[in-house]
Amino acid sequence: MLYQITGKHIDVGEALQTHVKNELNSVVQKYAERPTDANVVFSKSAHEFVCEATVHLSTGLTATAKAYATEIYSAFDDCAEKMEKQLRRYKRRLKDHHKDRSVPVELFGAASYILASDSESEESETDTLQPIIVAEMETKIPSLTVGEAVMQMELAGAPVLVFRNEKKDGVNVVYRREDGNIGWIDP
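-> structure tokens emitted (187 positions)
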């Protein structure tokens, strides 16, 4: 597994890197058979250290965890606990519903835009019907089953996930509804 351990305005020493690799490896190997890479970022927010960890699995799922603590090692340990809890829950689901995936998840390129309106130019904007594009980014659209898409959305903590349905070969959307249930749009 590839590790990328970085710090934002913090020096991440060899001892911390070794601790992160050993602990994260034991957590991930326990619950995920084929992890591909892990990204751990340490930063400081006021008096607390922040640890954000992202692990990509060969099944296409991405597990993320974030923790805060007054010491950097305890911030990572809390983050590793959250990661372990997530992976344990999703391993149960994968074991029950999704036997070994024979091929990795395909990713398709797409454009992602952030749109905003300027309060001063709202009158002129409604005349032209052209929104202001604040940012344009590239994003990946995974090819998943509906169950995998729901798991990916929950792992990422995202309110919505756009994916390509493997069974129907079309673009679908899953989202968290206001009542707490999951909605699925299949055009």
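The chain has two domains: 2-97, 107-185.
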